[in-house]
């Protein structure tokens, strides 16, 4: 576990200032899906991809993303059309958590917008576990 929470705040603020929230620019996650950037993929199907976080904040920390962004940059930007995909992402998180043997529990986090510490504007679920997590979670 490495990056300090402060680093995530700065990354989110930088992404916000660059206008990435409303950008059609390809994200690092788009490049992972297209295999332009390597990732440790632990699950893939036609709709979703799960891979290990490069900056883990728990013993087990992976991300679940839609393979096609389709305007789903933030949870708050989701529409009725995204309902099935959102459900599939949650199902995928649970499936991979089971595969990762997180039987004692885990946390699913969606960062939304600058104040939610979102730095990559391609909707993604963080799944953290493998240890006792504390409450309240901070950024």
Automatic annotation (TrEMBL):
InterPro entries hit by this protein = Histidine_triad_CS, Histidine_triad_HIT, HIT-like, HIT-like_sf
Q: Which domain of life is it from?
A: Eukaryota
Motif Histidine triad motif at which residues?
122-126
Pfam families, sorted: HIT (PF01230)
The residues responsible for catalysis, as annotated, are 124
What terms describe the molecular function in GO for this protein?
adenylylsulfatase activity
Q: The HIT domain covers which part of the protein? A: 28-139
PANTHER family with a match to the protein in the record: HISTIDINE TRIAD HIT PROTEIN
- What is the name listed in the Swiss-Prot or TrEMBL entry for this protein? 14 kDa zinc-binding protein
Species the sequence originates in = Ostreococcus tauri (Marine green alga)
User: What lineage is on file?
Assistant: Eukaryota, Viridiplantae, Chlorophyta, Mamiellophyceae, Mamiellales
């Amino acid at each position: 576990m490495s990056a300090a929470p402060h680093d995530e705040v700065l990354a989110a603020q930088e992404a916000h200032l660059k206008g990435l929230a409303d950008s059609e620019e390809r994200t690092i996650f788009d490049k992972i899906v297209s295999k332009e950037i390597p990732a440790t993929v632990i699950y893939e199907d036609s709709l979703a991809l799960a891979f290990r976080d490069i900056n883990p904040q728990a013993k087990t920390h992976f991300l679940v993303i839609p393979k096609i962004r389709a305007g789903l940059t933030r949870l708050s930007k989701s529409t009725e059309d995204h309902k099935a995909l959102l459900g599939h992402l949650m199902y995928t998180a649970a499936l991979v958590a089971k595969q990762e043997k997180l039987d004692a529990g885990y946390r699913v986090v969606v960062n939304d917008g600058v104040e939610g510490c979102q730095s990559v504007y391609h909707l993604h679920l963080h799944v953290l576990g493998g240890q006792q997590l504390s409450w309240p979670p901070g950024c």
